[in-house]
């Protein structure tokens, strides 16, 4: 994924999950939309996003422009 942080063994980038949350999506909705993710995956993604907020925000902005 071009060096972007992704969930293990998937191509789902952390910024995408963080973006869903910023838009008000619940964890249940995200997990329903991505059945290949576990609740642990989601928690790890949000922990990463919290640890690296600048990286995630830049990725969200970059992908909003595309």
Structure description:
The protein is an all-alpha fold and 66 residues long. The protein has one domain (14-65): Arc Repressor Mutant, subunit A (Orthogonal Bundle). Helices cover 64% and strands 0% of the residues. It is built from four helices and no strands. The radius of gyration is 11 Å and the shape is globular.
Brief description of this entry?
This protein has helices at 14-22, 27-33, 39-51, 53-65. Helix content is 64%, strand content 0%.
Can you give keywords for this protein?
66 residues; mainly alpha; Arc Repressor Mutant, subunit A; globular
Question: Which outline best applies?
Answer: globular
Radius of gyration: 11 Å
How would a textbook summarize the main sheet?
none
Determine the N-to-C terminus distance.
Answer: 15 Å
Helix content: 55-70%
Q: What topology does this entry show?
A:
Elements: H1 14-22, H2 27-33, H3 39-51, H4 53-65
Helix pairs in contact: 1-3, 1-4
């Amino acid at each position: 994924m071009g060096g972007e942080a992704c969930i293990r063994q998937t191509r789902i980038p952390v910024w995408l999950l963080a973006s869903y949350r910023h838009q008000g999506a619940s964890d249940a909705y995200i997990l329903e939309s991505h059945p290949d993710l576990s609740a642990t995956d989601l928690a790890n993604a949000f922990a990463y996003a919290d640890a690296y907020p600048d990286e995630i925000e830049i990725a969200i902005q970059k992908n909003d422009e595309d």
